[in-house]
Amino acid sequence: MSRRVVRQSKFRHVFGQAGKAEQTYEDIRVSKVTWDSSFCAVNPKFLAIIVEAGGGGAFMVLPLAKTGRVDKNHPTVNGHTGPVLDIDWCPHNDSVIASASEDTTVMVWQIPDYTPVRNITEPIVTLEGHSKRVGILSWHPTARNVLLSAGGDNVIIIWNVGTGEMLLSLDDTHPDVIHSVCWNTNGSLLCTTCKDKTLRVIDPRKGQVVAERFAAHEGMRPMRAVFTRQGHIFTTGFTRMSQRELGLWDPNNFEEPMALQEMDTSNGVLLPFYDPDSSIVYLCGKGDSSIRYFEITEEPPFVHYLNTFSSKEPQRGMGFMPKRGLDVSKCEIARFYKLHERKCEPIIMTVPRKSDLFQDDLYPDTPGPEPALEADEWLSGQDADPVLISLRDGYVPPKSRELRVTKRNILDVRPPTGPRRSQSASDASFSQQQQQTLETLLEEIKSLRERVQAQEERITALENMLCEFVDGTD
User: pTM (2 decimals)?
Assistant: First the structure.
């Protein structure tokens, strides 16, 4: 009698758990735009969600700790004139976020550490270069202030946010709508999927397609692709019979897939979230109520199914926390922020361990907030792996660093769109003074409100006494 051998893996028992009621964010009107992006972005400081907005596009930014019911008058970030389609936090500055919109622009915003009183309407910089709506954003993993955007004009533009200028434009690479774009680990290559059913590996600085594979998945529905730590490409798509399918490919040999698995017949596009530290890929389908996760190894069959987290309600979108934002004391290896119609709830993935000590094997050094390169160095051809940090003592987000935009083109006489465009050192202290003044004003307003309330109570008491006195004399 043959005995079935169970594959050894420390991630075999990873389980997902929805956050408690007090950990959720309630009363959020999640955007109803029909676009296959995650609608949610999260980092160790903030949670950002694209929300419904009249007459333009907006997203809401909440401090991670501000759980519970969200005030209906909570300020939003709304500078776009069309619906916001994608948002992405800068990996090197937890206070900087980029947004892409149907209005053809990309805007970059600095989010203050204090909760603003009014809506944020002035971006640090507006990036204009696309002729149709912009639906995909992705920051460079190792170079400072380098941002990629892809639009409905089938063009990929790479920007230097620090100067507000276009670094590269890939105009003729894609003949049809781009479905997804992903950087590799050091940001030297891109992999893209397109409506023409072709999976491409592109060297952006040379503007060349290094490798391509037609019909990696034979179905007509959108395909998604991400680079793995080993340089392979993990894809999700559909078969000719509209079954959902996942694949793993070696860009050096695109003829045959390393792995190809059919999954189910659901029609939701699978969004892959890949964790390079554990080499686990999580698949979240829009409209699904489950998250499936697989471990990618270097031995055949390469892609191993681990488990499925299931819940009752379907997801409208999903945010994926960077590794440095996780609770290492609870052996948390991933955290998602699942969007419902009116709320956002965290889903925590944990490896069960009995020991309370730091688990070195679960938490290798992970990319930190320091960039390895400047934008000019990357553009000149340099590559560098991410600067790693240890999570042994937990991660504490650094203080907010101001992103300043220095215009290089002296002929550009457009007025600055926000108070943060100044380059002088004195401006930084002026900005700090402004923040202190604002906090002082808020304190004064609070004390004035209390005084007014006390006076109102006193007036009411005096009026009651007067009424009693009048009644008594009658």
Answer: 0.84
